[in-house]
């Protein structure tokens, strides 16, 4: 087997990956990378390579192998709906997939490198020269036209990101970082490729440890990583289960980004950990993180200053710089800028523009301003794009998917912020009564799980502004003040069942306008994974018991009654 020379993305001798208690040494990593690189070079590669794998070290090493031989790649999540996977494959013109045997039947006629059969390439000769591509990877984000858009990230941008982040955060060899982020989220690059290229040990959480708060905290406690990267939502998920943050006692750096960091969460981290706390900001189009701030001793939130070879402009509607302290749109230039959106020239031209004729910038659509010491304060979006659990979502994409269901006339999705958490609510008008379960099932075939609204409500009409547009602000206000909001009021005379409902009251609050019974569905209450953890923790404290691991997953229960029945069994109130 020929050794593939690698000028960039070199793995130092201290790099390791730990997955499900198995440690892959530096030698193991290099062997796997060489085998995948060799297999790639035995195939004819003209387009980006698809990486279609379950969570495992190979998911990381396949990306490194592609980068080392100048082959652009795109991650595909096996949990995505077939419609989305097929769209990405066709949009990227993927003709070669790195996959595993169980997913071979899901490929659309592409050639396949099957991980279980890598040994078959050992005697084959490399027929393909290293591809000379300036693109490192393509990552798909939500699109307002109803389909996702693929962002083409340059190799040079990834290398600049590695260097820039390493200048402001200590990624020293021998340290360990725990990785909980899904591979299709751009910040996974920091926890994976960046980390092993800097000589760190990557502690890779499996799919259960990603979603189960008990398994997550146990992994952190037992493996004692030096570094963690979380979205605020994921940190809140952890905090709800471990309010004293005992699992973070040995962590020296906590990296937070992807959403606005709540001040009270920052204060909890400051009080209960000894870690340096970094707040990061950056859209996918400017390569993961563009700014970093050290908030370890700060009493207010900002997103800091740009990393190397990056500039930030705060511009008004006429693309003029605003005055000091004035609010405008955050625009970014520098080595982190992506090429654009693959096969979407008009969209690229609108988002990536020339400032004063000579500086290429990306218009983020985010509002911000300069504050003291050259730091930047993030002030939210100026359009219908939102962040939920760190994922950037175009509400219009969900609305288009909803309207694809039979008999739906019009649909509007709003994002409610309650107790520092974001919740999607879908509202719709329909010609005839529809089966909501079928409606949800149809959406699950079209959209990733994180884009499915937690609540669906039929409405007679939508409020409109004076110029005839749907008034989203009025709809959000209605949720805060009237019977559309979820409610909790007991309709049971049973003492045990009242205790169950009391827990929901304490977690979610009361509303006098509606009733809630044991038959109420959790999804109808707008409960998400973070609120679910709070409810579970409250039940464990109330009844002095522990939920089984498989019941700590958000979708383990559909109704309050199912939780009550489970508790009865666990407490031996009913025979098992």
From TrEMBL:
Highest taxon, organism lineage: Bacteria
Biological process per Gene Ontology, one example term: antibiotic biosynthetic process
Annotated keywords: Antibiotic biosynthesis, Phosphopantetheine, Phosphoprotein
Residues annotated as domain Carrier: 494-571
Keyword Signal: no
Stored PANTHER family: CARRIER DOMAIN-CONTAINING PROTEIN, PLIPASTATIN SYNTHASE SUBUNIT D
PROSITE patterns from the UniProt entry: AMP_BINDING, CARRIER
Protein's name according to its UniProt entry: Carrier domain-containing protein
Protein family according to the UniProt entry: Belongs to the ATP-dependent AMP-binding enzyme family.
Keyword Endoplasmic reticulum found: no
């Amino acid at each position: 087997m020929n050794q593939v020379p690698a000028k960039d993305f070199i793995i130092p001798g201290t790099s390791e990956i730990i997955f499900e208690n198995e440690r892959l040494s530096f030698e193991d990593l290099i062997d796997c990378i060489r085998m995948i690189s060799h297999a790639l070079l035995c195939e004819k590669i003209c387009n980006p390579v698809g990486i279609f794998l379950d969570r495992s070290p190979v998911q990381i090493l396949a990306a490194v192998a592609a980068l080392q031989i100048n082959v652009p790649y795109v991650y595909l999540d096996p949990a995505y709906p077939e419609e989305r996977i097929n769209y990405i494959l066709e949009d990227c013109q993927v003709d070669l997939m790195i996959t595993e045997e169980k997913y071979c039947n899901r490929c659309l006629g592409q050639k396949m490198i099957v991980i279980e059969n890598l040994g078959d390439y050992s005697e084959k000769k490399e027929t393909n020269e290293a591809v000379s591509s300036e693109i490192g990877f393509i990552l798909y984000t939500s699109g307002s036209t109803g389909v996702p858009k693929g962002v083409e990230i340059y190799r040079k941008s990834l290398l600049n990101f590695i260097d820039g982040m390493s200048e402001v955060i200590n990624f020293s060899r021998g340290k360990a970082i725990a990785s909980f982020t899904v591979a299709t989220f751009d910040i996974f690059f920091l926890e994976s490729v960046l980390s092993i290229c800097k000589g760190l040990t990557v502690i890779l959480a499996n799919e259960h440890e990603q979603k189960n708060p008990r398994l997550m905290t146990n992994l952190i406690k037992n493996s004692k990583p030096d570094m963690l990267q979380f979205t605020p939502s994921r940190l809140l998920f952890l905090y709800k289960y471990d309010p004293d943050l005992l699992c973070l006692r040995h962590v020296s750096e906590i990296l937070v980004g992807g959403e606005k960091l709540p001040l009270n969460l920052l204060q909890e981290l400051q009080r209960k950990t000894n870690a340096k706390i970094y707040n990061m900001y950056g859209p996918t189009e400017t390569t993961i993180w563009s700014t970093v701030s050290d908030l370890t001793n700060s009493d207010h939130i900002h997103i800091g200053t740009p990393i190397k070879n990056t500039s930030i402009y705060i511009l008004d509607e006429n693309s003029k710089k605003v005055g000091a302290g004035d609010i405008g749109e955050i625009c970014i230039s520098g080595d982190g800028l992506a090429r654009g959106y693959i096969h979407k020239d008009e969209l690229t031209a609108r988002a990536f523009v020339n400032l004063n004729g000579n500086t290429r910038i990306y218009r983020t659509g985010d509002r911000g301003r300069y504050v003291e010491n050259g730091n930047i304060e993030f002030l939210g979006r100026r359009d219908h794009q939102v962040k939920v659990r760190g994922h950037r979502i175009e509400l219009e994409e969900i609305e288009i998917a909803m309207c694809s269901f039979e008999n739906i006339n019009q649909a509007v999705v709003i994002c409610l912020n309650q107790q520092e958490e974001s919740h999607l609510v879908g509202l719709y008008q329909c010609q005839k009564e529809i089966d909501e379960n079928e409606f949800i099932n149809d959406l699950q075939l079209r959209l990733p799980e994180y884009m499915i609204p937690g609540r669906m409500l039929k409405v007679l009409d939508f409020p409109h502004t004076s110029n005839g547009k749907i008034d989203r602000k009025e709809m959000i206000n209605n949720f805060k003040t009237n019977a559309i909001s979820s409610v909790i009021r007991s309709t049971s005379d049973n003492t045990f069942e009242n205790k169950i409902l009391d827990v929901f009251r304490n977690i979610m609050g009361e509303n006098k306008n509606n009733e809630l019974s044991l038959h109420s569905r959790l999804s109808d209450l707008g409960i998400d994974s973070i609120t679910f953890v709070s409810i579970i923790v409250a039940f464990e404290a109330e009844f002095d018991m522990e939920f089984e691991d498989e019941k700590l997953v958000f979708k383990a229960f559909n109704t309050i009654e199912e939780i009550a029945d489970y508790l009865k069994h666990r407490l031996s109130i009913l025979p098992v």
